[in-house]
Specification:
The complex is a heterodimer of chains A (288) and B (268). Chain A has 288 residues and is mainly α. Chain A has one domain: MetI-like (MetI-like fold). In chain A, helix 2 crosses helix 3, helix 3 runs antiparallel to helix 4 and helix 7 packs across helix 11. Chain B is mainly α and 268 residues long. Chain B has a single domain, classed as Orthogonal Bundle (MetI-like fold), CATH 1.10.3720.10. Chain B has 12 helices and no strands. In chain B, helix 1 packs across helix 11, helix 3 packs parallel to helix 6 and helix 6 crosses helix 8. The chains are: A mainly alpha (288), B mainly alpha (268). At the A-B interface, helix 1, helix 3, helix 4, helix 5 and helix 7 of A face helix 1, helix 3, helix 4, helix 5 and helix 6 of B.
């Protein structure tokens, strides 16, 4: 008995120790050193100069704006595409439901390099999208899709759509189907049922999905680099440029800290308000 | 057709169109890989499978593939062991700093990949005697650990505690109750978690890119180099093979734990 109690006291330390030690060494230490170097000048003195430089020069500041704008458009587009999929998953037959689920998950297992390659073929000037638009007589000149903001947003939506669909689908599945039936019996049209029943009750899933998509999009490096090229500058590509091309580590680390803080800020807002969304949805359910 | 049925038909059409959007980059890559011309066209004018043979002629691709398999092959078991032991501590015991531990283990999911990449580049460069491969293995364990921890914690929380009580009463020691009670219930989660960890590591570009050097690259890095320098369908052929590989792994994990659990594992 005494033996097992002492074992129980040591067990969590023994079990968690290796993982914790590994993460402190390989993950926490490097990030802390990077954070520290953003506050040091070339003479190793404390300084805020790198941050000041970022916020005082419009050229750098506009990169932050680019990132936020692209993440915003990506999130809105993802919401618009995710609602039909999530709604269909919750209400259609199981055949539809499994097909949607498999198609949604599949891209997650395929390298972003391969997916961007596919989008490069689709979006380029002589690519199928421009060819069909020209054939239909909708455009005379090929649209600039590749190496444009449109291309980057399409690529980002494609990469992060699953993070929108999955939480949204589980929120819609939890909605009591009697609520929609009641609305239908009271004569509400499909559109009004969606606006007044499904939409408000799916807000917790929507908030969770939108937070994931937004924070992932502002942090994305590979998709903007491959589909935007040198024409689209966002925070992550600017960090890579400062560090790898210009070798300006201290400014690069300051930019990466600003990026980290912005993306954590969005997460914190979500965590702080998530309980309220859930309360709201459950209060609405009590009304039944 | 009634108005309601018409609307349902429209919704189905819309859903099918969105699914096509999701699949389109993969479909385009697979179709173009069968083009006969030495410039990649979509759709191809004539078809051939010659680019699938051409893959084996590409310089440096074999080494990159070997590196990728080595890195993911070592990182995956390390991630399984560290992730499972940490998950056991979190799901089974109460101790000081538990939520801090959980936050630290999951933090690679919230810190932007580029920040992880350059911080590790800066840090690992300062350690003498650490090879590029070793640095990449360590990095891959760190970024895959959150998936393993989350998956195993979720499945441990579903475990029947009365079974553990029974094992204890029957005189099983900690190791026996782990081997005969806990392990059988969490093994399918560990298995699927391991498949996902392998895929995430094998596909990783954003972090490997910063740690690689001219002599040591991985498959995604080498592929991108070829995509940027070649205009023929050879890379489409290689990409198609990797897409098929992913589909197979997804089928295996669906077979092991069911589609729902796979979805929960991959979604945030």
């Amino acid at each position: 008995m005494i033996q097992s109690r002492s074992r129980a006291r040591w067990a969590p330390g023994l079990l968690a120790g290796p993982g914790a030690a590994f993460m402190i060494l390989v993950f926490v230490t490097p990030v802390v050193i990077l954070a520290a170097s953003s506050f040091l000048d070339s003479g190793k003195q404390l300084t805020l100069a790198h941050y000041w430089r970022f916020f005082s020069e419009p050229q750098y500041f506009s990169t932050l704006w680019n990132s936020l704008r692209l993440a915003f458009f990506t999130t809105i587009t993802a919401i618009l595409l995710a609602y039909p999929l999530a709604y269909a998953m919750a209400t259609f037959s199981s055949g539809w439901r499994n097909t949607i689920l498999i198609v949604t998950i599949l891209p997650l297992t395929i390298s972003v390099v391969i997916r961007s390659f596919g989008w490069q073929i689709l979006l380029r000037n002589g690519g199928p999208i421009n060819q069909s638009l020209t054939a239909l007589g909708l455009i005379d000149e090929p649209l600039r899709l590749l190496f444009s903001e449109t291309g980057v947003v399409i690529g980002l939506v494609h990469v992060y759509l699953p993070f929108m669909v999955l939480p949204l689908a589980s929120a819609i599945e939890r909605i009591d189907s009697r609520l929609e039936e009641a609305a239908m019996m009271l004569g509400a049209s499909a559109f009004r049922r969606f606006i007044h029943v499904v939409l408000p009750l799916s807000v917790p899933g929507l908030a969770a999905g939108a937070t994931l998509v937004f924070t992932a999009s502002i942090s994305a490096y590979v998709t903007p680099a491959l589909l935007g090229g040198e024409f689209i500058q966002v925070m992550p590509t600017m960090v890579a440029q400062q560090v790898l091309t210009l070798m300006d580590w201290s400014f690069g680390s300051a930019v990466s800290m600003i990026l980290t803080v912005v993306s954590l800020f969005v997460l914190v807002i979500h965590w702080a308000t998530a309980a309220r969304f859930t309360n709201w949805a459950s209060r609405a359910e009590v009304v039944k | 057709m009634s108005r309601a049925a018409g609307r349902l038909y429209l919704l189905k059409l819309l859903v099918a169109a969105i699914l096509l959007f999701i699949l389109s980059p993969m479909i385009v890559v697979i179709i173009s890989s069968f083009g006969a011309a030495s410039f990649l066209y979509f759709p191809p004018n004539s078809y051939s499978i010659k680019w699938y043979y051409e893959i084996f002629e590409l310089d440096g691709l074999g080494e990159a593939l070997a590196n990728s398999l080595l890195i993911s092959g070592i990182a995956t078991p390390l991630s399984i062991v560290l992730g499972t032991t940490s998950a056991l501590a979190i799901a089974r015991y109460k101790f000081a700093g538990k939520s801090a531990l959980m936050a630290m283990l999951l933090s690679p999911l919230v810190v932007p990949a580029i920040v992880i990449g350059i911080s590790m580049l800066q840090f690992f460069r300062s350690i003498d005697g650490l090879s590029t491969l070793q640095a990449m293995i360590a990095a891959h364990v760190a970024i895959t650990l959150p998936y393993m921890v989350r998956t195993v914690v979720a499945s441990l929380e579903m475990e029947d505690e009365s079974m553990l009580e029974a094992a204890k009463m029957l005189g099983a020691n900690a190791f026996q109750s782990f081997a005969f009670v806990t392990l059988p219930t969490i093994k399918s989660s560990i298995f699927t978690g391991a498949i996902f960890v392998f895929i995430i590591s094998f596909d990783n570009y954003a972090i490997s890119m910063f740690l690689s050097d001219a002599a040591t690259t991985t498959l995604p890095i080498k592929m991108l180099e070829f995509i940027e320098s070649r205009t023929d369908p050879a890379m489409a052929a290689l990409a198609s093979l990797l897409i098929v590989f992913s589909v197979i792994l997804l089928c295996i994990s669906t077979w092991a734990v069911g589609l729902k659990r796979v979805a929960r594992m991959s979604g945030g």
